Amino acid sequence: MPDAHPNPLDLTHLYDLIRKAKQEPQVVMELTAALLKQAKEDADHAAESAILVAIGVSQLHLGFFDESLNLFAQAEEKSGGKKEILALVVKERLQSYINNNKYKDIGSDYLLLLKIYHSFENYSEKISALNVLAGIDYSRRKIDDAISKLNEAREIARNKEDMQSQSTISGNLASIYSSLGNFPRAIREIRSAHLNCQGDRRAVVVLQMAAIYREIGKINEALLVIDSYLEEIDNSPTVLHERFLLVNKADIIVDLHQYNDAIDIVEKRELHKSPVFKIRANALDILGKAYRGQGEIDKARLFFIESLQIFAEIGPITSQAETAINLAELELSHSSQQALHYSSLAMNLLESSKKNPKLWSRALHVSSRGYAALGEFRQAYEVGEQHRELQVRLDREAEQQRLEVAFAELEFERTQAVAEIQRTALGQARGEVAALHAHLESRVEQRTRELQAANEELSAFAWSLSHYLRTPMQLVMGHADLLVSVPEAERALHADAVVQSIGRMSDILDGLLRYAERHLKPLESRPVSVGELVGEAWTELALGDGVQLVVNPLPVVVGDPAALGLVFRNLLANAAQHSRGREGARVVVRASLEGGMHVIEVRDNGVGFDPGAAQRLFRVFSQLPAGQSFEGLGLGLADVWRVVIAHGGHVRTEGRPGEGASFFVYLPATPGLVLGAPASA
Question: In what residue span(s) does the Histidine kinase domain sit (predicted)?
């Protein structure tokens, strides 16, 4: 078969060389020396200019930004005013500015490329130019212009049946829609990009997909996407975007508290010393978080400060603000003034919550705690209220987003399934489509019910927060005012009342914080002796001789020890509380095996409850009517329900007024694990 490009200086061949420079820069550097010499001997200025562009792109992807700009300038001089060559030079120079967040240096190049990009005879270069122009429009918040240019590029790619270009365009659209908070559309676009991408382009798509999953809180999905790709390349990144994938993986596993693994990824690959400043700044921030998690505060502070300095030079503002908040959170336990300084810096960078409400919420939280530590309680209260109101809204929006994303993913899967079915026999397709629709309807109904329950819980959360804190706060303010005016002999009484009210608020906030943290914290998975958990919980409760505990043989299950310990502590505390004071008060814990599930029963002979109120027991902030209420915030049994559901089980309860109550915890049985010995009462 004859060579498609017999002349190595042919422009089409040189376009391919420039694209290769982005994936294998060192290889291209070795190839271009002989080509450049030949172009000079032939006085082929167009080829010489394109080769200089290829060298410039190679230098850029090797981390030498300034050298690449010098080469682009030489290439422009050699272009001789030929529009297609000039468009090539300007396009790659603009791309280099975008890659290095140097948008302020774009100058007139944008207007020049906008004017001459039609000069490209090579359709793929025209598509590339539209992608670059769209990226600049987006950076200037001209969203409609950016989407319009990407749709123009998509139309060209469709007409040429170029799936790879379609993948690139879908990925760029996904990034735009994600930044706008339109995650359903972003998911559809990135799934389409992932479906059509090939070769090294896949690293870019995987990076975008992981970023979107992280934004909507699907941390495990993001990690799975990255790990799947890294396994394919044997964890040996060779191109820029693959190194970004490693940075993202390290950041994710820091969030999962796997600090040593994150440090190992960054330091073994020397990502924190990368010549690419964006990689270096992110890697330094990750090291700061990891060492903070390990308690090495001085080391963490140095990494955060260095990261902040780099982000201040290269942007973006949100990255600089996030690192400032990380520093503020670090300083909370060491210098409240410094914590307030960095949280204020972050808020000044963001200007308002509109730029990034999640970061704004974190900054408010740090500020509230900082003011409280300095004794500025009124300021702490006001800022804390702002944080709580914003966080309630963010939680509600996040749940809505998760539902919408679930719908979008299901719709994408349905569309792909239908497309596949259409390629098979029509008769078979009808049956599969009907089954798929039935499955989708079932999933939609299930997610709708979950969303309704979540919305009810968030509404209750907001109400309870206001309800439970209002009274002690009013007492604090009232007694504090009296301290100024009452005789000295009475001040101790009012001071004691202030301390008691503050203690009550602290207990309330601690309970809410523990509840929120348990909701977000990933679960461990290892063999756990239920008998030991019950024994430890009973000892911790220290209930004295008022209630007898009877423990039968209990199983070993697979799960999170801390979370399951919380389950049995809450159930035992609940049982003891409602049995105490009755003659022969007793709590019995026993287990049975039922349909592949261990059923652990916690039974008491206490006051019991109305069977009609059983379902309300497991709702957060929901308490029974007077005479049957559970003391506190109503978080304990809600925690039980959440933890057991997260372990693949379920909970039910039985009871009657005056006849005691039983709580049944169902947990999956694992072959090979046996009943444990009775716990000591």
Answer: 464-671
- pLDDT at position 607 is 83
Which residues are 558's β-sheet partners? 527
Classify residue 191 by burial, with Cβ atoms within 10 Å: 0-12, 13-18, 19+. buried
Topology of domain 526-668 in CATH is Heat Shock Protein 90 (3.30.565)
Of 367, 327, 375, nearest to 344 (Cα)?
A: 367
Residue 601 is classified by DSSP as E
Which residue, chain included where needed, has tokens 């730029």?
355
Chain centroid offset of residue 437 CA: 31
pLDDT for 481: 63
Q: Is 89 helix (H, G, I), strand (E, B) or coil?
A: helix
* Spatial separation of the C-alpha atoms in residues 339 and 342, rounded to whole Å: 5
pLDDT-based confidence at residue 25 (cuts at 50, 70, 90): confident
Token digits for 577? Answer: 């509380």
CATH topology assigned to domain 450-522: Helix Hairpins (1.10.287)
pLDDT of residue 267: 93
Structure tokens at 131: 């992608």
First-to-last alpha carbon distance for the chain, in angstroms, is: 85
Give the model's pLDDT for residue 494. 67
Beta-carbon contacts of residue 235 (< 8 Å; ≥ 6 apart): none
Nearest to 640 by CA among 660, 659, 666: 666
* Cis amide linkage into residue 527, ω under 30° from 0: no
3-state class (DSSP) for residue 587: strand
C-beta separation of 189 from 171 below 8 A = yes
Please give the CATH number for the structural domain made up of 1-121: 1.25.40
Adjacency order of strands within the sheet including 586-594: 548-551, 586-594, 597-604, 661-668, 650-655
User: Closest Cα partner for 634 from 649, 618, 645, 613?
Assistant: 618
Q: Which helix (H) or strand (E) holds 384?
A: helix 377-422
Q: Domain residue spans in the chain?
A: 1-121, 450-522, 526-668
Strand 556-559, strand 650-655: pairing: unpaired
Which residues does residue 320 pair with via DSSP β-bridges, in sequence order?
none
> What distances in angstroms separate CA 288 from CA 323, 381, 463, one per listed residue?
9, 29, 37
Residues 655, 614: contact at Cβ < 8 Å? yes
